[in-house]
Sequence to fold (204 residues):
Amino acid sequence: MLFTGVHVHGPSATTTIDVVVADGVVTRVVVADGVVARSGATGDVIDGRGLGMIAIVPAPDGCGHMVRAVEPGIAANLLLVPQRVMPELGTPWWRVIISRGDLRALLSRGRIVVRDGEPLDRSAHPDGARVGVWIDRADWLHQELLPQGRYDETRGGRRHAYTGRYWLDGDRIDYLDDTRFYAFGDFISDELYHADFIMRLRRP
Fold:
């Protein structure tokens, strides 16, 4: 898979590059100079002009995931969005929120799971250990992960405040809200981190 002309975070500014993904890994990054770097690329070719790409990597302290620059050798867990909404380097992944219209591609281990805002043939993979009601420390947010891959939030006693679909991806969770935005979360130990909330599963 080849992404051409994408913007990535550099040391002092964004840089335009071509990115090759193969076997679930970023295998090649070449500074774009008008000559497309096809070496090692197979499959889809995606025009990234005007778009920014970031990598989703484990945080150095072992607490969830964070936004990092794209470079060869890392797992191809990648987000492609308009350059104007690129998350900053070091942003915790659970704090990223992207409108459905802005999410051009989301890759999980080199496989596109969202393309132009649409989830692609992706089952929810609900995990029995994670299905249930997750409650934040202030008992304000109750987020119920339902077995069929839907979620339903109660916020400050207001039922159905946010509803939508979710997908589990290892220790990460992707949400697509019915109001047309994507949000993300991380399971860290026995807690779920999402936006400004840290939640625990309610036990019977």
The mean pLDDT is 92. Residues 99 and 181 are 4 Å apart (CA to CA).
